[in-house]
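Sequence, please.
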């Protein structure tokens, strides 16, 4: 397993992506970008990079906050995430900068790229697809599904949304509005909903029922399996 860190820039700010791939696989490989949850890029996302590398991809964890900008409390996380949720144009520029940095890596097949994201990262991943980026497919794990209000671009990516039915942060009307948006934009989309499942269901450290973030091992396993099948299809 080879791992690297890649520095890239946007608007005078510096960002650090983490990259992993299987050295025994020759040539350029399909790549899957990962957008982090609201605390910033951490061990959770880097571990997902390595799991993607085991599947034969280049796993690349983006950094949408900036070098060294990470949160350790709900208040710090919200302070980091809030400005990007409010300024989706800024978020798009950062996502596209990470996308271009990843596409330029010597081991990445720039014609076979995908993206996944968790919680806030799900919103990021869907926004990257909404930007018109040349992605084969994107997957949102318990992501926020709010539209970004930016000028419409042609969405090239197929979309898979993996959602906890009891997620208090993404109520049914938000899911319905997302599906209507995708239909209006003629996107090839899927939404899988898991019963008795709340927000952050893939995170083993999530255990705050009052806040609405609870790990659900069955949904975690099923969602990863669905993602694997999805990328088998879009990268074929």
């Amino acid at each position: 397993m080879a791992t690297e860190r890649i520095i890239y820039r946007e608007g005078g700010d510096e960002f650090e992506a983490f990259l992993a791939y299987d050295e025994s696989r020759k040539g350029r490989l399909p790549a899957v970008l990962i957008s982090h949850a609201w605390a910033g890029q951490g061990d959770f996302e880097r571990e997902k990079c390595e799991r993607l590398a085991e599947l034969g991809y280049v796993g690349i964890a983006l950094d949408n906050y900036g070098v060294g900008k990470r949160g350790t409390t709900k208040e710090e996380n919200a302070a980091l995430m809030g400005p990007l949720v409010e300024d989706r144009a800024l978020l798009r520029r950062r996502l596209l900068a990470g996308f271009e940095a990843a596409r330029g890596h010597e081991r990445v097949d720039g014609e076979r790229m995908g993206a996944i994201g968790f919680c806030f990262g799900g919103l990021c991943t869907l926004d990257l697809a909404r930007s018109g980026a040349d992605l084969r497919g994107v997957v949102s794990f318990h992501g926020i599904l709010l539209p970004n209000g930016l000028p419409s671009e042609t969405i090239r990516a197929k979309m898979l949304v993996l959602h906890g039915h009891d997620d208090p942060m993404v109520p049914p009307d938000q899911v319905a509005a997302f599906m209507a948006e995708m239909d209006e934009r003629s996107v090839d989309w899927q939404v899988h909903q898991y019963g008795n499942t709340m927000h952050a269901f893939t995170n083993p450290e999530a255990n705050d029922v009052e806040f609405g973030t609870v790990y659900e091992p069955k949904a975690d396993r099923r969602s990863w399996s669905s993602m694997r099948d999805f990328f088998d299809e879009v990268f074929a």
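The chain has one domain: 2-234.
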